[in-house]
Amino acid sequence: MLRRRFLASLFLSAALSAGIGAAPALATEPKKKGGGPGYTQFPMLNVFTAAQGGRHGNLSLDMGLYANDPKMVDRIKLYMPRLKDAYISRLQAYAANLTASSMVDADYLATQLQNATDTVLGQKGAKVLIGSILLN
Q1: pLDDT of residue 112
Q2: What pLDDT sits at residue 20?
Q3: Which of 2-6, 15-19, 28-32, 83-87 has the highest mean pLDDT?
Q4: What does the alpha-carbon distance between residue 80 and residue 78 come to, in Å, rounded to a whole number?
Q5: Sign of dihedral through CA atoms 95, 98, 101, 102?
Q6: How far is it, in rounded angstroms, from Cα 48 to Cα 96?
């Protein structure tokens, strides 16, 4: 019985010291967006590649678009589904000839994605920023 009381008091003191019982603080400032107000993050883009033994590999690309003009940022958000479709098409065409031991040409991919961005948006002004490229 003493062990139960001891454990209960131990958990209670740990919870109070961690602030679980405290009231949450009110947020006065909006959360800061990573990359600034002109940056639009895209979800991770994934396409298939050829692999040994009849299996497939995966090319994953983390990217976003940056624009100085607020109207262009709104246009990017509006055209996001079309942009994702254009990016996947360009990436799949590139990844069709890759194997697990291939080297990915980041400059070529950036050029292809920038061309797709300018084509879909119908004007220049959005800059493609690549975060990471993974090839499995």
Answers
A1: 96
A2: 56
A3: 83-87
A4: 6
A5: negative
A6: 7
Which residue in 123, 117, 86 sits closest to 94, CA to CA?
A: 86
pTM of the model: 0.73
More confident residue, 58 or 3: 58
Q: Using only the alpha carbons of the chain, give its radius of gyration.
A: 24
- What residues contact residue 104 under an 8 Å CB cut-off, 6+ apart? 59, 98, 133, 135
User: Distance between alpha carbon 64 and the CA centroid of its chain, in Å?
Assistant: 7
Amino acid at 101: S
CA 73 – CA 75 distance, rounded (Å): 5
The residues pairing with 127 across neighbouring beta strands, listed in sequence order, are 66
The dihedrals phi and psi of 134, each to the nearest 5 degrees, come to -120, 135
